[in-house]
Specification:
mainly alpha; 3 helices
Length: about 60
């Protein structure tokens, strides 16, 4: 994922997770089962910068 898609995906998931958590506090408590994992995955996607670097393939660099 590049930076733009990571930011969009993570940001949307964080917003949905926070909305579900707020709704669960006022309405139905079982929505927390969905809100907390979505929030955690969204934060993980948002702050995971190690996916942006491109690793070199080791099998292509070897010469015979």
């Amino acid at each position: 994922m590049n930076t733009l898609s990571r930011t969009l995906t993570g940001g949307i998931m964080v917003v949905i997770g926070v909305v579900l958590i707020v709704v669960s506090l006022f309405n139905v408590l079982w929505v927390l089962i969905y809100g907390i994992p979505i929030l955690i995955f969204g934060l993980f996607i948002l702050f995971n910068k190690s996916e942006d670097k491109i690793e070199q393939r080791k099998d292509l660099n070897k010469t015979k």
